[in-house]
Amino acid sequence: MSKQKITVCGATGNQGGAVVTELLMQEKYAVTALTRDPGSAAARSLAVRGAHIVKADLRDMNSLKAAFNGADGIFGLTQPWNYELGCFDINAEIRQAKNIIWAAKAAGVPGIVFSTILNLSATISKVPWIDCDEDHPDVS
């Protein structure tokens, strides 16, 4: 019996890394771990444990389509921190989410689990990394 192929976005971060670890422990999944830096210590550690490491960027639709090709499922998550701007960027996070969804559809992936911390309500949650956007400057 062949293993289900699961692709994990943000695999070298806390949440994505935990998902990769759990999937690898179950030994019934072939895990593709997406990262912007395949040479990082975190990526190398995942490779040693059995994950296939693929360079992809949530801002680059073509890299996602290629990474999702052949996947049976995707764990998608977005990154609210914009490293170039040095702040949280809700609009960029929404673009990342759309890229994941559109790339999954284009690649014909039958299933996706999606995780985000976006606060799309009109209320303030009082959680700084959720509330900060152009209307709510960085709150420490």
TrEMBL record:
<dbReference type="InterPro" id="IPR051164">
    <property type="entry name" value="NmrA-like_oxidored"/>
</dbReference>
<dbReference type="InterPro" id="IPR036291">
    <property type="entry name" value="NAD(P)-bd_dom_sf"/>
</dbReference>
<comment type="similarity">
    <text>Belongs to the NmrA-type oxidoreductase family.</text>
</comment>
<keyword id="KW-0521">NADP</keyword>
<feature type="domain" description="NmrA-like">
    <location>
        <begin position="3"/>
        <end position="121"/>
    </location>
</feature>
<protein>
    <submittedName>
        <fullName>NmrA family NAD(P)-binding protein</fullName>
    </submittedName>
</protein>
<dbReference type="InterPro" id="IPR008030">
    <property type="entry name" value="NmrA-like"/>
</dbReference>
<dbReference type="Pfam" id="PF05368">
    <property type="entry name" value="NmrA"/>
</dbReference>
